Amino acid sequence: MENKLSSIIIQKQAPLFTNISFLSMNIREVEQMELKNDTLLLKLLSDKDASVYYKLYTERMNEHPFLPDETPLAFTTRILQLCNVLFTIRLRNQPEIIIGDCALHDWDQKNNEIEIGGSLFKAYQGKGYMQSAFDLLIEHAKDRYHVKKIIGKTQVDNNHAIRLVEKLGFQKEKEENSTVLLSKIL
After folding, report:
1. Angle subtended at Cα 78 by Cα 75 and Cα 79, rounded to the nearest 5 degrees
2. 56 with 14: CB under 8 angstroms?
3. Residue 76: what are its φ and ψ, rounded to 5°?
4. Relative to the CA of 22, which of 80, 86, 141, 168 has its CA 20 to 30 Å away?
């Protein structure tokens, strides 16, 4: 009989999870879950990735996502608790190097929708990697969560992110304060 996830999994070198969306998967399936195409490998964020993940968000000058005195592991654990699934983005030909992250969060089962988000280190921006990662993540959202709508939120002045999701078929729904909401019907 295979072990099923029933609570938070925090194992050496294993992904950190707190989300119920993995309850139907056995531990081995979760630990080995990867999404890939010819260019990218999306690998679940693990505790061993915490310092690189933290650096990714220290590079973003316009955001301050850290709590006072928050360690890389504490930050990573906190963000994982907010996501349904959180992947590191890696190049297929250099899988040991993390170039960014992408996530699905705020799954609304009643309305069959989920939010998508991500970030890349500056050195990897503008090369099509996030579009490729989002393509993989959107397929995963359809297959795993059976959603009919993907939502993206960003700052109104984040023209790169807005153009990226518009290329993927997202439409602007509304602007509130300094945030724009875009969505794609699947």
Report:
1. 85
2. no
3. -60, -45
4. 168
Task: Check: CB of residue 104 under 8 Å from CB of residue 141.
Answer: yes
Q: Which residues contact 34 (CB under 8 A, 6 or more apart)?
A: 41, 42, 43, 44
Question: 20-103+119-146 adopts what CATH topology?
Answer: Aminopeptidase (3.40.630)
Q: Measured between alpha carbons, how far is 41 from 35 in angstroms, rounded to an integer?
A: 6
Q: Which two tokens stand for residue 41?
A: 């490998």
15-to-36, 51, 108 alpha-carbon distances in Å:
18, 14, 23
Q: How many CB atoms lie within 10 A of CB 40?
A: 24
Q: Which residue's structure tokens are 């006072």?
A: 68
148: alpha, beta or left, given left = phi > 0 and alpha = psi -120 to 50?
Answer: alpha
Domain extents in the chain: 20-103+119-146
